[in-house]
Every structure is written in structure tokens, then in C-alpha cells.
Fold this sequence. Notes:
Elements: H1 7-16, H2 21-42, H3 55-75, H4 80-111
Amino acid sequence: MTQAMNTSEIYNLTLQDRKTLVQRALKLSEEAGELAQAVLSATHAPGCDYKQLSMGDVREEAADVLIVALSILAQASGDQDEFERELASLMEEKSRKWRAVCQQTNDLLHDHV
């Protein structure tokens, strides 16, 4: 099995790409818009079918969003070690918060049944 995400490559490509942090943030917004378009088209939202995009397009655009977001984190880090530590730490922290919200939602749903 291949590694799903090569953080070293993300960090090194970020160093090679001369975009400023502001430019990367704007690029992230652009990519998020493309993801939204793909989702609307793939789910047949009214007025969006003409693009004829699929869930494969949704996955591709989601990957673009992920790569740009990671490059922002990399650029905001002092070095590769900090980038990798912050990524691991933030993913754990944010996942923990999401789990807590899901648990609260499930508890509320069960209380009202």
C-alpha cells in the first residue's frame, strides 16, 4: 500500500512555489469554489446539471482543496518538522472536537426518540 499523503513532498513543493500566504489563501478560496461547483453538479442541484460533473470530479476538487490547505499550513510553519508536528496535532485536536459534536448530536437524537 502506498502512503496516502507525502507530507515531505507537500512541504518541499510549498518551498518551491513562490506564492505568498495571501495568494495561497485566495487560491484555496478558488479551489473551494470549484469543489462547490462539482458537488452541485454531481448532486444534480437545480440549474447545475449542465456541467455534467461526477463524484470523481468532487474527489478531484476535494484533493485540490486539501493540497492547497496543506501548503498554507506548511508555509505558516517554521520548518518541515514543525509542519508535520502541527499537522498531526491539529488533526487530532480537530477530530476530537468533531467526535464530541457527533456524540452530542447522537445523544440528542436518541433523547427525542
